[in-house]
Amino acid sequence: MLAFISGVCDRIDALEPQIQALLPEPGRRERLLAEAASLQRRFPDPALRPPLYGALLGIKDIFRTDGFLTRAGSGLPPTLFAGPEASSVSRLREAGALVLAKTVTAEFASDEPGPTRNPHHLAHTPGGSSSGSAAAVAAGFCSLALGTQTGGSIIRPAAFCGIAGFKPTYGRIATDGIIPYAASLDTIGLFAQDIADITMAASLLCDDWRATLENDILPVLAVPDGSYLTQASPEALTCFEQHLASLAKAGYTLKRVPVLNGIHVLNRMYRELASAELAQVHMNWFATYEALYRPRTAAKIRAGQQVGLEQVVQAREYREIIRAELETLMSQEGIDLWVCPAATGPAPEGLNSTGDTAMNLPWSYTGMPALALPAGRARNGLPLAVQIVAPAMTDEQLLLWAAPLANVLLEQV
Question: pTM of this prediction?
Fold first, then answer.
């Protein structure tokens, strides 16, 4: 293990100055080697080692983590964010994971990007707001990373960085110990190179996890045709059709179902709810430290201050209506999973934007579990991904079905 960690630290020394996925930490190598040696002494017998023994973990810098400051990508005093360690971090540590680093986040998990670059092309965004977590896994710095999704901050950066990203059902993973964005929407999720690592970590983090037996029955997949899907770029849609053809050739049943045609209403309701709750979170901090907020974050908070209580109530009620409609339709049509592009296209050039959340908002808004699976590359060579979505509280089945789906799609990578 010590040789492995030294090798990872060498890789970080070589690549991190360009990628900038991790928060700086003097003495990181020495700390990790000491923690690894301690772990080896605690578990000398391989048969008794915990499931994540020695796995390196990246943690988005909105999670409180013992031994690390929490800055949330902001210029505010980190003492404001002090508190007990997030239980999600504690659970992974108890399972044997070693904290590699805090990873870069957009300011307060919103729209102001950090310095992180896409490991596949340094001139392109890695996505946001969990940018550092996705880039750290893609760069080979860690095998597992924690992030959060309020709009699209797990699925989109996973897609842009060519890795797997899992956003579980809203509420399946406790969100204590994080700096919230919008409590009605915030969901802790995971990044990894493969589905097996995500499944292992999810089984440790998700409340009331139920082991699911393997079976040979292929899920019925449905394409959500209509105005939602047309938000993707022409190139993304062309590639998506190729992905669908590969899945059909592999034996999957595909249906095209008109749905989410009120997508503009949904998007507006989501924005009102998210910005109103963001403004509530920052009410006291913003009153004191407004000058330290970056422009887009400040603008979103001010917009949220203008959203009335009645609008918030309507947005929460509409969320339940849309989720019920989607899941009822799935039941009526015999649909197991929705399948759609994970992002509107490949990672955009430049670092001033983290990309478009349009493909992710319905599933974040309704709280349904979603997974990004790498699926080939765009004309410019950057990764693309397919997103699969299941009914709420069926995370176990989603991950079970994901592995064979990923194998089909990986043939296009």
Answer: 0.97
